[in-house]
Amino acid sequence: MRLLFLGDVMGRAGRSAIAEELPRLRAAWKIDFAVVNGENASNGAGLTPDHAKGLLAAGADCLTLGDHAFDQRDMLQFIESEPRILRPMNFAKDAPGRGHRIYSASQGRKVLVTQVLGQVFMKRPFPDPFSDLDRVLRAHPLGGLVQASLVDIHCEATSEKMGVGHYCDGRASVVVGTHTHIPTADAQILPGGTAFQADAGMCGDYDSVIGMEKAEPMRRFVTGMSKGRYVPALGPATLSGLYVETDDRTGKATRVEMVRHGGRLAAAGPAPVTDAAPVR
Question: What is the fold, at CATH topology level, of the domain defined by 2-205+237-268?
């Protein structure tokens, strides 16, 4: 199976890039299932129902959220009626929506998608993500009812993301990090067969400070004082993420490639290859 994961969509620039490029990438790379993290798609904080509908219409089979899952209040109700949107499993005990679900991919194959929040350096304490992941992965072993599974670990610390990767190694097809908006250069297949990247990066304008216009963040760094609100940058966006091929029989990853498409980081993308896999 060919899986595509795209990192945190950042504001209007990220949404526009998804709308314009995701349909082309799905066709060119023959993607069977695509997951997009959309938690910063609406003005950099949360996701509105209308913007969620746009990302789904562009070709996302599933949207994951994060610690900003309900910054846009309409999502509290919308997530209950839209099964293609997931919030983190360990967000809060009584949070609406679900943190994992099995979806249908091409040819009737099944894909488990789940998301958890980390605990290290986060703004508020979240419950243990490892126990939640263990419960779900035990109930959905690879090679059983699901042909592939993907874990979105949304947190600050790369060490915690790597810990989750090794914890899930051999039990998930893909473990990929989100939240920090900066792509890491460690895409790999772990010893047990799980594709891993500590952070997928964002889908947004990289001529920015993690997707925000530079002036206000720089003012706060330099002077320690604020003058205005953070505003998402609106320059050409790079789609950043991970492309993974899996074995349908075992669910293990057989190939992993970083995705850098368009915008300022396009030159850092995978080298040109054959068989419709990611190209620059």
Answer: Purple Acid Phosphatase; chain A, domain 2 (3.60.21)
